[in-house]
UniProtKB/TrEMBL annotation:
It comes from Ensifer canadensis. Residues 53-130 form the DUF4168 domain. Keywords: Signal. Residues 1-28 form the signal peptide. InterPro entries: DUF4168. It comes from the Bacteria. This is DUF4168 domain-containing protein. Pfam families: DUF4168.
Length: 142
């Protein structure tokens, strides 16, 4: 069961990698913020935002920046590769590196990271809070 969950999380981070190859690191958060004008904004995730502590958001920001370094390192390689098998191998490699980047943090688990990422993509208020933390995280913590 634990192995299945780990691979599901790797698949989730792979999807994140693939979606981020065409966008800047904050694009997903910016897209979530663009939804702020939608009428359902008041209903979406007020409980989610309150349930995630500032410490977890800070830990997420640090881990996100590490994951983004991996994304940047692999993005050009993946785009430059024309062979589908080689692309898939690079994406798998990148996913493993992303998971390791998150796991290297003692302050946040891969599950918590994925949960916050998903919540931020669906909750404009949380997305704004996360984006602010990412932008203000000191280079020493990156």
């Amino acid at each position: 069961m634990d192995m299945i969950n780990r691979y599901a999380l790797i698949a989730s981070l792979t999807a994140t990698l693939v979606s981020f190859t065409a966008f800047s690191p904050a694009s997903a958060l910016e897209m979530a913020q663009a939804q702020e004008t939608q009428p359902t904004q008041g209903q979406a995730g007020k409980g989610t935002d309150a349930a995630i502590s500032d410490q977890k958001i800070q830990a997420f920001a640090v881990a996100y920046l590490q994951v983004d370094k991996v994304r940047q390192a692999y993005s050009a390689k993946i785009e430059a590769t024309t062979d589908a098998a080689a692309k898939e191998k690079l994406q798998t490699e990148a996913s493993k590196q992303m998971v390791e980047a998150v796991e290297s943090s003692s302050a946040i688990s891969v599950e918590e990271y994925s949960s916050i990422l998903t919540a931020a993509q669906n909750d404009p208020a949380l997305a704004k809070k996360v984006q602010e933390k990412i932008q203000t995280t000191p280079p020493a913590q990156q």
